[in-house]
C-alpha cells in the first residue's frame, strides 16, 4: 500500500469536503457522477487510487441519493484497488432507528452499517451519532468524533458564570452533563412524552433555571418541535435567556418558522448538513478542521481520542 492520501466527495457534501481538503492541505480527488437517462447514477473516479488511502466524504442526509452515492463510490474505490477505504460520514443518516421500539419495524442503523461494510469500507468516521451504541453495529473501526471539540473552545471565550446547561429530553442527558461538568455548571432536564414520532404530548422541566442563561444541548434538530418547546418552557420558568447547540441541522418542515417564533436567542450548529435557508437565529461552526485532523491521524496511525475534549 502506498502512503498517498486521496480525498473524494459525494455530490451532496462537496460544500464541506472542499473545506476539509483545504484544511488537510490538498485538493479533492477527481470524482465524477454520470447519470443514465432514468436518473441512475454511476460514480467514476477519474484518477488512479491503486494502493492508496482513500477517504470518501459524504453525509447521508435526505434525499436517499446521498446514501446510494456513498455506497457506489465505496464500491468503485474497492474495485479500483484502493489500499484502504475510510467512509467519512459527518452526519450518519438513519441513526434514529437504532432499535425496535415497536413491533414489525426495521433496525435501519444496523442495515446501513451492513451496507457500508459490504460495499467495501475498511473504516467509518462520523460526528455525534444519535446513539453511541451504533458503533457496535460495525465490525470495522469507527471513529466517533464529538462536537464538544468544536463547541467547548467556542464557549471558553465567553462568560459562563451564569450558565445552566439543559437537555431537551431524557435521551440527551449524557451530552448536556458533559458540558455541565466541563464548565462546572448546573444541569436541568426537560422530560417529554410523545404520542407518536414528531408529536409531543407534554413536557415538564426538572430543575431550577430562575435567572439563568440556559444552553440547550442536542445532537440533531429535525422539526425543531422539541427544542422550541423546551426553550419556551425554560423561559416560562424564569430563565434570563436560552440558546441551543445541536450538531446536525436537519430542519425539515416548518422548523425554520418554529425557531424564528420561539424563545431561542441563537441556535448554534455544525456544517455536516447544509442549511436550507439563512436565519438570523442560526449560527454555523465548521467541523472541517476536526475532520482534517482526524483524517491525518488515521493516515499517520496516531490517536483519535487525542481529539476529544478532556474533563477539567
Shape: globular
Helix content: 25-40%
Tell me the number of strands. 14
CATH topology call of the largest domain: Rossmann fold
Class derived from helix and strand content: alpha/beta
Give the rounded overall mean pLDDT.
Answer: 94
Estimate what percentage of residues fall within beta strands: 25-35%
Low confidence ranges: none
How is the quaternary structure best described? single chain
Largest sheet: 7 strands, mixed
Radius of gyration: 20 Å
* Helical run tally: 8
Q: What is the H/E string? A: EHEEEHEHEEHEHEEEHEHEEH
Cα-to-Cα separation, first versus last residue: 41 Å
Main sheet: strand order: 10-9-8-11-12-13-14
CATH class (first level) name of the largest domain = Alpha Beta
The count of domains is: 2
* Named CATH architecture of the largest domain: 3-Layer(aba) Sandwich
List the SSEs and their pairings:
Layout: E1 5-9, H1 14-24, E2 31-35, E3 41-45, E4 53-57, H2 65-79, E5 84-89, H3 108-119, E6 123-127, E7 142-145, H4 148-156, E8 163-167, H5 173-182, E9 186-196, E10 199-206, E11 213-221, H6 225-236, E12 241-249, H7 255-261, E13 267-270, E14 282-285, H8 288-299
Parallel strand pairs: 1-4, 4-5, 5-6, 6-7, 8-9, 8-11, 11-12, 12-13, 13-14
Antiparallel strand pairs: 2-3, 9-10
Helix pairs in contact: 1-8
InterPro entries: PRib_PP_synth_CS (IPR000842), Pribosyltran_N (IPR029099), PRTase-like (IPR029057), PRTase_dom (IPR000836), Rib-P_diPkinase (IPR005946)
GO molecular function: ATP binding; kinase activity; magnesium ion binding; ribose phosphate diphosphokinase activity
EC number: 2.7.6.1
Amino acid at each position: 500500500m502506498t502512503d498517498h492520501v486521496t480525498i473524494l466527495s459525494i455530490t451532496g457534501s462537496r460544500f464541506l469536503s472542499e473545506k476539509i481538503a483545504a484544511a488537510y492541505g490538498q485538493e479533492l480527488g477527481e470524482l465524477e457522477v454520470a447519470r443514465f437517462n432514468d436518473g441512475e447514477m454511476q460514480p467514476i473516479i477519474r484518477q488512479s487510487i491503486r494502493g492508496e488511502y482513500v477517504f470518501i466524504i459524504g453525509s447521508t442526509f435526505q434525499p436517499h441519493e446521498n446514501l446510494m452515492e456513498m455506497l457506489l463510490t465505496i464500491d468503485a474505490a474497492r474495485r479500483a484497488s484502493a489500499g484502504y477505504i475510510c467512509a467519512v460520514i459527518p452526519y450518519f443518516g438513519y441513526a434514529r432507528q437504532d432499535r425496535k421500539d415497536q413491533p414489525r419495524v426495521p433496525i435501519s442503523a444496523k442495515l446501513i452499517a451492513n451496507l457500508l461494510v459490504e460495499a467495501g469500507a475498511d473504516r467509518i468516521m462520523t460526528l455525534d451519532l444519535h446513539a453511541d451504541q451504533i458503533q457496535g453495529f460495525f465490525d470495522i473501526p469507527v471513529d466517533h468524533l464529538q462536537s464538544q471539540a468544536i463547541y467547548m473552545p467556542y464557549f471558553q471565550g465567553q462568560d459562563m458564570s451564569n450558565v445552566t446547561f439543559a437537555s431537551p429530553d431524557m435521551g440527551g442527558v449524557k451530552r448536556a452533563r458533559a458540558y455541565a461538568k466541563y464548565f462546572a455548571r448546573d444541569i436541568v432536564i426537560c422530560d417529554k412524552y410523545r404520542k407518536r414520532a414528531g408529536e409531543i404530548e407534554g413536557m415538564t422541566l426538572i430543575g431550577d433555571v430562575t435567572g439563568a442563561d440556559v444552553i440547550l444541548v442536542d445532537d440533531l434538530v429535525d422539526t425543531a418541535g422539541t427544542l422550541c418547546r423546551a426553550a419556551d418552557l425554560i423561559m416560562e420558568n424564569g430563565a434570563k435567556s436560552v440558546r441551543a447547540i445541536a450538531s446536525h441541522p436537519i430542519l425539515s418542515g416548518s422548523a425554520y418558522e418554529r425557531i424564528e417564533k420561539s424563545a431561542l436567542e441563537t441556535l448554534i450548529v455544525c456544517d455536516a448538513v447544509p442549511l436550507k435557508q439563512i436565519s438570523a437565529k442560526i449560527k454555523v461552526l465548521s467541523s472541517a478542521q476536526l475532520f482534517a485532523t482526524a483524517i491525518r491521524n488515521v493516515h499517520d496511525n496516531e490517536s483519535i481520542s487525542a481529539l476529544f475534549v478532556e474533563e477539567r
